[in-house]
Amino acid sequence: MNHMGMSKVDLASLPMFASSYNEHCPFLSEVNQSNQGQAKAAKMDALLKQRNFECPNEECCMFKGAEQSEPGFFDTVNGLNEDEDGDDDVQSAVEMPELQPLTAEGGFPGAVEEESVPRFFGSFCNGFTNPAKFEAATPPVVRSELEAKLGKLHDAGNYREFIDIERQNGAFPKATRHEMSEEKHITDDVTVWCNNDYLNMGQHPKVVEAMIGAIRNSGCGAGGTRNISGTTHYITELESTLAALHDKEAALVMSTGFVANEAALSTLPGLLSNCHIVSDELNHASMIAGVRNARMPKHIWKHNDLHHLEQILKGIDEQHGPEVTKLIVFESVYSMDGDIAPIKEINDLAEKYNAITFIDEVHAVGMYGHKGGGVAQRNGESSRITMISGTLGKAFGVFGGYIAGPAHMIDAVRSYAAGFIFTTALPPSVSAAANASIQHLMEAQYLRDKQQEQVMKLKSKLQAAGLPVVWSNSHIIPLMVGDAKKCKIASDILLEKHKIYVQPINHPTVPRGTERFRLTPSPLHNDEMIDHLVAALDDIWNSLDLSREIPAEYDDPNQGPFVHDVDTTVPTPTRFDWDLNS
After folding, report:
1. CA–CA distance, 508 with 303 (Å, rounded to integer)
2. Among residues 184, 176, 253, 298, which one has the least CA distance to residue 438?
3. Which alpha helices (H) appear in 232-305, and where do they start and end?
4. Average pLDDT, whole number, for the chain?
5. Does residue 375 contact residue 361 with C-beta atoms inside 8 Å?
6. What is the mean pLDDT of residues 355-370?
7. Which residue has the higher pLDDT, 281 or 16?
8. Phi-psi category of 152—alpha, beta or left, where left has phi over 0 and alpha has psi -120 to 50?
9. What is the pLDDT of residue 120?
10. 207 or 81: whose pLDDT is higher?
């Protein structure tokens, strides 16, 4: 407080004391007898003038009863009592200007000014009075700066609006949409086409019963971090199942897929001598965060460009020696374009240059491979991958993330990663449900095949309708719009007119000019739903006069010398028995 020139602690300005202090301060208690609004503000102003900015409570910063008492905060201008040169800068409280309310012009941007109720920022003893309920916590300059930034998102059409969805158990992909309109609660049944619960395991009876059973048996929470009573038997079983899923020595469960990537990639490189990280330019934000937080030498290679990757690996060896540790970081299925990395060729380079590999399979686990272990498993490359990261919240339909790999590497992350150590463990119910889901999908090849069958149907019908569909190598179907505002408008029309929910994908998730819809058919999106979606999209493209061409700015990663060409006559294979060279 000294730097503000305040001679006493302003207890009423501190949230922890404000309530009790107001009750015991004669000045404030008298003011608080008035109702909220104009009466209270008027009484506050009158008392300030009447009592010459003086409070009878000795602990108050406005107390001036004793002759030797130091000037209170309201006795000064800018909280200053005296200059270093001895000149008196103290302004009499009587000369102090009246407190002015903040208005829309001079205070909070966009605020609706009420003539009867002045608006102020801050607590009473901080120099302002009558704070609005929520605005009292934020200085006007902070509020205005943040609102300006949000305004830019609105103007560009990139502001994200959440749709209030209530999933109905057993009704997937149908859901109930909630909306408040003119103080009325409106609900609609909609068909969801952008869900990452790719196989509807979130509503599978085995998964639901496993979760309920664990709650009945162990209650709701884990009770602590993994190190402090949080390693329940359910999570131990889950990690054993995950290791078996990927044919790895060990696995480690974390709170989210983001945390799994960030924790592993920020920790492992730092435990190795002079580790160089080589990361694909289109890696997920969680991987980028991990690479940055590792604070080790990093190199970004052009997306799926094997020539560029080899140039980097070769350059590291030439400059630092072939024994230097190199970590290649990439994804199997890239979520916005649906393209698949050339895993075999990356593994070939890793072995050639003595590198280790880290693959993110979050958009592939459950849906590819003979056990649902991902694209690396489908392609027979799992044993050549050093470490795999995955999620429990997409195809497995629950929540959480994990890594799987050699036991010594998993143990190193377990022992050193702050993102794992200092957070509460997954609840028993979540661990039990995830374990049940994985075990079911390890045997449920029919779900993987059915999903790809419906994906194939939707791609074909979108193409037949002349819509700008990207024929991806996976189950993810990008439908290009190329304009952020039009993408949002089209999404709104789909929801309001056709009862179809598809979230617009805009910058920064994708580059400007490549805005799109990201469609994710499941085994339960039937033919009738597909026909309804295609008809609705065709209607919107006509009514909004949207381009039916792929935007020129879009560089399709599903095509090129380093990826396998898509066969538009057959569904995307999900099993190892697919011949990559055929």
Report:
1. 17
2. 253
3. 233-245, 257-271, 285-294
4. 84
5. yes
6. 98
7. 281
8. alpha
9. 45
10. 207
**305: CB partners within 8 A, 6+ apart:** 562
Q: Enter the tokens of residue 289.
A: 């965060």
Give residue 138's identity as a one-letter amino acid code: T
| Residues paired with 357 in a beta bridge | 328
Query: What is the rounded CA–CA span in Å between residue 525 and residue 505?
Result: 21
Amino acid at 556: D
Strands 504-505 and 500-501: unpaired
Distance CA 15, CA 492 (A): 42
Residue 99: pLDDT over 70:
no
For residue 555, give Cα distances in angstroms to 10, 301, 330: 60, 16, 19
SS3 568: coil
Amino acid at 167: R
8 Å CB contact between 536 and 528? no
Asked whether the predicted pLDDT for residue 274 surpasses 80, the reply is yes
DSSP sequence for 152-173 = HHHHHT------EEEE-TT-TT
Question: What Cα–Cα distance (Å) separates residue 535 from each residue in 25, 304, 468, 469, 528?
Answer: 69, 35, 14, 14, 11
List the structure tokens of 574. Answer: 């999900």
- Residues β-bridged to residue 24: none
Per the annotation, the verdict on 133 as an active-site residue is no
- Rounded distance between C-alpha atoms, residue 408 and residue 292, angstroms: 23
Which of these, 575, 136, 208, lies nearest to 371 by C-alpha position?
Answer: 575
Q: Which residue has the tokens 């119910």?
A: 429
Catalytic residue among 394, 457, 459, 488: 394
Q: Which of 290, 234, 232 is nearest to 266 (CA)?
A: 290
Q: Report the alpha-carbon distance of residue 275 to residue 269 in Å, rounded.
A: 5
**How far is the C-alpha of 387 from the C-alpha of 356, rounded, in Å?**
8
> Model-level pTM?
0.77
Residue with tokens 């592993």: 264
d(CA 313, CA 297): 13
Pairing between β-strand 184-192 and β-strand 174-181 as defined by DSSP bridges: antiparallel
Let me know: does 464 contact 531? Beta carbons within 8 Å. no
